[in-house]
Amino acid sequence: MINRGYYDGFGGAFLPEILVATFDELDSVFTQAKKEPAFWEKYKDIMSDYSCRPTPLTFAENLTRHFGGARIYIKREDLNHTGAHKANNVMGQGLLVKRMGKTRVIAETGAGQHGVATATMAARFGFKCTIYMGEVDMMRQRPNVFWMERLGAEVIPVLDGTRILKDAINEAFRDWVTNMDTTHYVLGTACGPHPFPEMVSFFQSIIGKEARNQILEKEGRLPARVYACVGGGSNALGIFQGFLDDPVELVGVEAGGLGLDSGRHASRLSSKDASIGIAQGYKTYFLQDNDGQMRETHSVAAGLDYVGVSPILAQLKEKGRVRFESATDREVVDALSLAMKKEGLIPALESAHAFAQAFKEAPHLSKEYIIIINQSGRGDKDIFTIADAFNDSAWQEFIKGKAEEYNA
Ligand SMILES: Cc1ncc(COP(=O)(O)O)c(C=O)c1O
Questions:
Q1: What is the per-residue pLDDT for 3?
Q2: What is the distance between the alpha carbons of residues 115 and 131, in angstroms, rounded to a whole number?
Q3: How far is the CA of 305 from the centre of ligand 1 (A)?
Q4: In the predicted structure, residue 12 carries a pLDDT above the cut 60
Q5: For 369-378, what is the mean pLDDT?
Q6: For ligand 1, atom 4, which residue shows the shortest CA distance?
Q7: Do the Cβ atoms of 112 and 148 come closer than 8 Å?
Q8: At what angle do helices 196-219 and 20-35 cross, to 10 degrees?
Q9: CA atoms within 13 A on the CB side of 13
Q10: Active site residue: 51, 75, 77, 86, which one?
Q11: Which of 11, 218, 231, 280 is the most buried (most CB within 10 A)?
Q12: For residue 45, how many other CB atoms are within 10 A of its CB?
């Protein structure tokens, strides 16, 4: 066991002996790359040529008028290639894989966005690719499974546990232990053993760096608040890092599911249901029972129902630097509906959590204030869940027709 990468007691690297050398290699390659300004420039070039960065900061004029309070801006991570901020992290890790001379990548995925991003990166860099995905998530996010397979990745259904993200992570670690000589595990969020939280946050910081410059350019001043949804915490840390040293209130929004009192949610830092523990190689707040067994989580958004949370966010919560809130499934679907109707934006269900909280607060803020919402991804992948939430009969008829066509 080794033990480092702490954030006031959160984090660390609780590793089986067999993985220590692999993590040491990753840590030293990352530490070296991080020191080289040329590496960041190369990373930025790839992100602009391949992933359409810088993503815009869009003024939401109609929503601003609708609420009559703060001026609302949206950071458009949905416009990254593959439709989410996940691209920022995987392309960065892809560059490190090249440096290490490895030829295969594996990843876990919940909503499927990280899986699609990893499969895309693997195709681009010429790596073999295996994606682990809980069977339940495979059902919820079928379009993304289709894309991963078409991109050349093997998608392995995980049948253990509750068959969601945490189970996929366990399976990916199992694979890594047997194949570490050739394989890199592209962890998708700012969790897991050191150096993953630091490394994922480093690549995602491109969001906050851009957003800060863009708002200063557009408005000549900083926002009062920045909102981001929190699954593992990568998009939130990405945008927050641009404003950590400024007098800007940072708001992380977790999955309130069916409500905090229902026990069916995934709120670690905004509920009293989580406690500090060690699992999956690091120390943070987990939703666990008194025996340390992971509890079942629930969210309408597959990408937010993880049992743990970034150790960096756990530290920022304890320091009082980030405020954590939660939005229920119902509030999220309503916010998504409003964003579509008023602004023509289609946020992912995950991102719609940030919208929901911002919509609760914007009307109570003065018109002088600016707020930024991080739209971490686009909602296309959620079409089945969203159609169900809206009980869209025309869509249901279409699906039935398709099924009949296949059965004919
Ligand atoms: C669009 C989108 N936003 C947010 C998340 C949550 O992850 P994180 O908290 O690491 O940004 C996911 C995870 O799959 C996602 O697909």
A1: 52
A2: 6
A3: 10
A4: yes
A5: 98
A6: 350
A7: yes
A8: 30
A9: 23
A10: 86
A11: 231
A12: 11
> Which residues, 6+ apart, have CB-to-CB distance to 30 below 8 Å?
96, 195, 198, 199, 202
DSSP designation for 20: H
Residue 348: name the closest of 145, 111, 140 by CA.
111
Higher pLDDT, 164 or 60: 60
* Residue nearest atom 14 in ligand 1 by C-alpha distance: 303
Based on the residue annotation, tell me whether 17 is a catalytic residue of this protein. Answer: no
Task: Respond yes or no on whether the N-terminal peptide bond of residue 197 is cis (omega within 30° of 0).
Answer: no
pLDDT, tens only, 217-243: 999 999 999 999 999 999 999 999 999
Instruction: Tell me the sheet residues that pair with 225.
Output: 249, 371
Ligand 1, atom 7: closest residue by C-alpha:
231
Joined together, the tokens standing for residue 211 give: 């957003």
As given in the structure block, the two tokens for residue 165 are: 């993200």
Q: Which atom of ligand 1 is nearest to the CA of 204?
A: 11
Please give the share of the chain, as a percent, with pLDDT higher than 90: 95
Which two three-digit tokens encode residue 402?
A: 């398709």
Does the CB atom of residue 29 touch ligand 1 within 6 A? no
pLDDT at 1: 42
Cα angle, residue 249 at apex, residues 244 and 250 outer, rounded to 5°: 65
Sheet with 282-286, strands from edge to edge, namely 6-7, 10-11, 282-286, 275-279
For residue 340 the two structure tokens come to 């579509």
Residue 70 has pLDDT above 90, yes or no: yes
Cα atoms in the 13 Å half-sphere on the side-chain side of 336: 28
Token pair 């949206």: residue: 74
Backbone angles phi, psi at 111, to 5 degrees: -70, -15
Answer whether 228's CB lies under 8 Å from 236's CB: yes
Alpha-carbon distance of 343 to 354, in angstroms, equals: 16
Q: What is the pLDDT of residue 7?
A: 98
405 is catalytic: no
Q: Is 48 a catalytic residue?
A: no
Answer yes or no: are the C-beta atoms of 282 and 311 closer than 8 Å: yes
Residues 331, 256 contacting (CB under 8 angstroms): yes
d(CA 353, CA 254): 7
Q: Is the pTM of this model over 0.90?
A: yes
DSSP line for 105-172: EEEEESSSHHHHHHHHHHHHHT-EEEEEEEHHHHHHTHHHHHHHHHTT-EEEEE-STTSSHHHHHHHH
Q: How many CA atoms lie within 13 A of 351 on its CB side?
A: 32
